[in-house]
């Protein structure tokens, strides 16, 4: 395959065909290696860490994906999303995800003590009626007609920033289920990329 050592420099001559084959082999290995790395990264992005004992809510997960299609009709497809709920407190669930994501603590709010950087995990609260009112125009497009007068009360929530291979997480207690027109006294966990 290789020619004998060159009398001048002692370095073997390599034919053009052999060089081309070696080059193509190296390019193929690099391409295969990069393709596998990309597939592994995509697989990591789709794996959600689920709070122990949480119950998957397929109807709310699908409804969220449908809402994304209505809001962004030109988007190729909705981002990976999963919705669960649990009897555990917001604090217990939030601490689980903060630890799983490797964050140090949950900030008291999004301002992070007036720091210019938004904290990776922070608390917030809100009014259920106001939040539901903001999505009211979207509901008929989803063929939903909930009794919005039943959306009453306040909630506590924690927002956790996603990582490269982890989705962002929103944890809230209680929440309003637009499919049943009920305020649910459980903690909802929404994970989305």
State mean pLDDT (0 to 100 scale). Answer: 82
Instruction: Walk across the major sheet and give the strand order.
Output: 1-2-8-5-4-3
Instruction: Give the strand tally.
Output: 8
Taking pLDDT < 50 over at least 5 consecutive residues as the criterion, the unreliable ranges are: 36-45
Task: Kindly report how far apart the N and C termini lie.
Answer: 52 Å
Shape: globular
Order of helices and strands: HEHEHEHEEEEE
Structure annotation, total helices: 4
The main sheet comes to: 6 strands, antiparallel
| Share of residues in helices | 25-40%
Q: Which features would summarize this protein structure in a list?
A:
2 domains, 193 residues, 6-stranded antiparallel β-sheet, 21% strand, alpha+beta, two-stranded antiparallel sheet
